[in-house]
Design brief:
single chain; 322 residues; mainly beta; Jelly Rolls; seven-stranded antiparallel sheet; globular
Amino acid sequence: MSNLDQRPPVATCGGRAGVTAEPVRELLKAKDVQLGESTVVRRLLPNLGRRMVGAWCFVDHYGPDDIADEPGMQVPPHPHMGLQTVSWLHDGEVLHRDSLGSLQTVRPRELGLMTSGRAIAHSEESPRAHAPLLHGAQLWVALPDAHRGVEPSFEHHAGLPVVAGGGGLSATVILGEVDGAASPGTTYTPLVGADVSLAAGTEARLPVEPDFEYAVLTMSGEAEVDGLRLAPGSMLYLGCGRRELPLRADTDSALMLLGGEPFAEEIVMWWNFIGRSHDDIARAREDWASGSRFGEVHGYDGDRLAAPALPPTPLKPRGRTR
């Protein structure tokens, strides 16, 4: 999924200075963003006060939206560089096309993982014949400097490991490892992503890594995370230093657990690119505008996205918080 903003702000992220070494409960406020003609998303990262969680640097939550009589998601071909995109659905389907020739329908609880590396382009759309509801999350993972120039790739994993925590808790491991169960998805930094389901009446403790920082995104229901009740579409930053996370739900609920080793490098994120300097971003924008490097997406019925103008001042990497 793309950042479709034609006046995208510069997000300067990374570095360990803003990492909270102790457990905290920091509620992040979402920003509503129009995505294409018919989809509104709640943008939770980058946030005014919190830019990254581990290598996770971008989180959009959308739906549940009734698209029975609507086209649904329609995101034209656009570029990415220096990151991985993670597509995660609870309802609906998304048809992925990319400049490698990939054509894949991603369905609920299946992992669509695209590694842009040095350059890739893709589109995402609801199939013409689609389910009546669309509900999911789109997330980006920043690639470390040693791997941000890797060859682009796309992975689709329909069968992911599930951890049964007892007491009504189950966790699908999207990336990384939870309680000994590892996702087949490729990662380049120590991180974890899990979809956690809580049945009504659940009280459980989910094991986590004390050296990771974590955040929880509420997908549905109103679960309590470390004693704090969260509304759907909200994100709670938890800091580091935990070995387990208390969870409780009076009604059926679903959460996404995102975490990882704090990302030490400082990065520049602008539009759909992640680099380390203004020149990295400017070069990528020029390559997309000139039709080089990113390839072509075939089969999408419509024009590709044009790159917005760069801001008038040079882009500079800074820390994790503002």
